[in-house]
Design a protein that fits this description.
- By secondary structure, the chain is mostly helical.
- It has 2 domains: 64 residues, Orthogonal Bundle (Arc Repressor Mutant, subunit A); 43 residues.
- Helix content is 59%, strand content 6%.
- Helix 1 packs across helix 3 and helix 2 packs across helix 3.
- The model has no long low-confidence stretch (mean pLDDT 92).
């Protein structure tokens, strides 16, 4: 499972892990009942502390994205993908709203914002 961590993003590492796993679940990259790496394995792979991965998994359990089966591990839970996708869209909308406010305060045009968005969106492909 590929997860990319940024130490300079300002977002706590456990939150980065949690959000990337959520995206993988919502996009169906991780399927219902799929076994996730153990907390220790994920920590080793990501070169972070076991506490960090434990916190990410605990949050995912609380939010209903994964389930813990004692002595067996963590599995992707059944989720309402529409609700999960709506949550992600709300996050994007809030971030875009901030970007628009900053752009307007600095007289940056909508055209320029669209160009930036297109470049950023294509960058990951």
């Amino acid at each position: 499972m590929e997860i990319i961590i940024s130490n300079s993003s300002g977002v706590p590492i456990y939150e980065q892990i949690k959000e990337q796993i959520k995206v993988k679940i919502v996009s169906n990259e991780l399927k219902e009942n799929e076994l996730l790496p153990s907390i220790r394995t994920l920590a080793k792979d990501l070169r972070c502390s076991v506490i960090t991965t434990k916190n990410a998994y605990e949050e995912l359990v609380k939010e209903g994205f994964i389930k813990n089966i004692p002595s067996k591990g963590f599995y992707v839970a059944r989720i309402n993908k529409d609700v999960a996708l709506e949550e992600q869209l709300n996050k994007i909308e809030k971030l875009m709203d901030k970007a628009v406010i900053i752009a307007k305060m600095n007289s940056i045009t909508k055209k320029t914002l669209n160009e930036m968005l297109n470049i950023l969106y294509e960058e990951d492909k």
